[in-house]
Amino acid sequence: MNMYGFLMGLGWLYCSYGLKQLQSETAVCQIDVDYISFFWLIFTIAGSKLFQKIVRNTWEGNASHGALYGTFLYICLISNYCDVYKIVNRLSFYFPVLYFFIRLGNFYNSEHYSVRSANYIQLYEGLLQGPVTLLCIYLYGEKDSIWIFMLLTLSIRIYFEFLRDAFDYKNIIIPIIMIITFYFLESILCFKTGIYLIFMLDIMCKLYIDDSLTHRNYGFNLSLLNNNNYTLRNKIIHLCLFPIVFYYNIGVILGAFSNLLERLINGYVTDYITIPLFPFNRYSFNIADILVTLGIVWDIYNRFIL
């Protein structure tokens, strides 16, 4: 049996038990929590497997970032039937145990081991969930206890990323975004969750999709003005256009932020969708481009046509 999957399953059972206990204390869901737990597992497995196939082109193994995305998607879907914000805050001291089991699985699989420093950083990271658990128990019932858990756990994750043999900035982008996400979780669940999920999917594709399947775009939206070099002309265009998009709706803002973030880091945007319109020409773009384009078109339609 795969030890990583077995230990993750134990963590899921523990969190499911916590959800059942919470439901017996105060009704947080309009539907049976056994169904809630079961479909949470399904979304987690489906997310990890689909992300593994899309990004790494194999069904073997699991992608933890895909599992995270599947979980967040599920949270958004059940938010109409459950008091999600109350659930995650009340169960905040269960989640460090789940995270410990995940890191213990990494330890058994010899993943995240630092050869350079001869440190089992995955085991240290898991053991540090002990103090996090105690703090979350102390804060039990507090409104922002889930954010405290995410802040501490992901800060620990970011710290240990610097101890790996080869540091990769990609591995700290998602933790930073998740810290911000859970800080504004209540607002996100009440407003434009679908657009935010698309934004998260775009960020994860840019970070982890195989380089052979991508195209570097030094130009603007839909590969316009792309001359394979980040020139002064490109910089002037971006400086003029990016402030303008913040005048539009949330889809434009998130799409622009996703592309701007990568430009600041790499000087280019990763495009992973290509449409060959003519034998001599093709358009490459990403999900963020779609958000920006549709957002602007929708805004123009509302302003000048309706």
From TrEMBL:
<dbReference type="GO" id="GO:0006508">
    <property type="term" value="P:proteolysis"/>
</dbReference>
<dbReference type="GO" id="GO:0042158">
    <property type="term" value="P:lipoprotein biosynthetic process"/>
</dbReference>
<feature type="transmembrane region" description="Helical">
    <location>
        <begin position="172"/>
        <end position="199"/>
    </location>
</feature>
<dbReference type="Pfam" id="PF01790">
    <property type="entry name" value="LGT"/>
</dbReference>
<keyword id="KW-0472">Membrane</keyword>
<dbReference type="GO" id="GO:0004190">
    <property type="term" value="F:aspartic-type endopeptidase activity"/>
</dbReference>
<dbReference type="Pfam" id="PF01252">
    <property type="entry name" value="Peptidase_A8"/>
</dbReference>
<feature type="transmembrane region" description="Helical">
    <location>
        <begin position="236"/>
        <end position="257"/>
    </location>
</feature>
<keyword id="KW-1133">Transmembrane helix</keyword>
<protein>
    <submittedName>
        <fullName>Uncharacterized protein</fullName>
    </submittedName>
</protein>
<dbReference type="GO" id="GO:0008961">
    <property type="term" value="F:phosphatidylglycerol-prolipoprotein diacylglyceryl transferase activity"/>
</dbReference>
<keyword id="KW-0812">Transmembrane</keyword>
<feature type="transmembrane region" description="Helical">
    <location>
        <begin position="87"/>
        <end position="108"/>
    </location>
</feature>
<feature type="transmembrane region" description="Helical">
    <location>
        <begin position="120"/>
        <end position="140"/>
    </location>
</feature>
<dbReference type="InterPro" id="IPR001640">
    <property type="entry name" value="Lgt"/>
</dbReference>
<dbReference type="GO" id="GO:0005886">
    <property type="term" value="C:plasma membrane"/>
</dbReference>
<feature type="transmembrane region" description="Helical">
    <location>
        <begin position="146"/>
        <end position="163"/>
    </location>
</feature>
<dbReference type="InterPro" id="IPR001872">
    <property type="entry name" value="Peptidase_A8"/>
</dbReference>
